[in-house]
Each structure stands twice: as structure tokens, then as C-alpha cells.
Design goal:
The chain is mainly beta and 121 residues long. The protein has strands at residues 3-7, 10-12, 18-25, 30-39, 45-51, 57-59, 67-72, 77-82, 91-101, 104-111, 115-119. Strands 2, 4, 5, 6, 9, 10 and 11 form a 7-stranded mixed beta sheet that branches.
């Protein structure tokens, strides 16, 4: 069984920064795309950023120029550096990964439990 554990959330003032990280664990054979989604109160879960196993990145328009996604393939982790945070960024942030195991073919999408990010003065 694969698990994704997020960390790094918290309360930050507008204009501040936070760095989220996600660490998969379990019987992992291969990890493909990894990414971050967020869900604000009363809204659907929206795409934020993703990174392929080859390092190609994609961002939602609302976070371009402010957020940076990266991955450490040696540790199988993915991070989201969030700068110039706004109140509109307040949400629960979820780690997402496409992972293949010996019992999952084709690869399946996995989700973390989420970490709260609150931007407020």
C-alpha cells in the first residue's frame, strides 16, 4: 500500500513564504507525475502544479511566478515552494502522484491527506 504524507503547512502573513513537502512510502516501483492540488472552503479541488519524472513542470495561472514545484528523485519526494502568498491561496493542499507498484498496472493516482495553508494578517 502506498501512502503520501504532506508537511510544511501553517499560518503565514500575506507576502510571506511556505515550503510544502510530500514523501511517498510503500512498495513503490516507479513514480511518474507528481503534483499539488488545493481545495479552499466551499470550492472544488483545483490543480496547482505538477512535475514529470523528467522534470517538466506545469502551473495553474493563478500561481505562476510565485510557486515553484521540484522533486528529489533520490528521495522520491516533491516540494512546493510558495512565495508572495495571498489570502486567496488559503486552502488545504494535497499531494498527488502517479505511482506504479507490483500490484498496480497500469499506474494509479494516489493522494495525500492534505495540509492546511492559511494566509492571513
Amino acid at each position: 500500500q502506498v501512502q503520501l504524507v504532506e508537511s510544511g503547512g501553517g499560518l503565514v502573513q500575506p507576502g510571506g513564504s511556505l515550503r510544502l513537502s510530500c514523501a511517498p512510502s510503500g512498495s513503490i516501483f516507479s513514480i511518474y507525475n507528481m503534483g499539488w492540488y488545493r481545495q479552499a472552503p466551499g470550492k472544488q479541488r483545483d490543480f496547482v502544479a505538477r512535475i514529470s519524472n523528467g522534470g517538466n513542470t506545469n502551473y495553474a495561472d493563478s500561481v505562476k511566478g510565485r510557486f515553484t514545484i521540484s522533486r528529489d528523485n533520490a528521495r522520491n519526494t516533491v516540494a512546493l515552494q510558495m512565495n508572495s502568498l495571498k489570502a486567496e491561496d488559503t486552502a488545504v493542499y494535497y499531494c498527488n502522484a502517479v505511482i506504479a507498484t507490483l500490484s498496480t498496472n497500469p499506474p494509479e493516482v494516489y493522494w495525500g491527506q492534505g495540509t492546511q495553508v492559511t494566509v492571513s494578517s
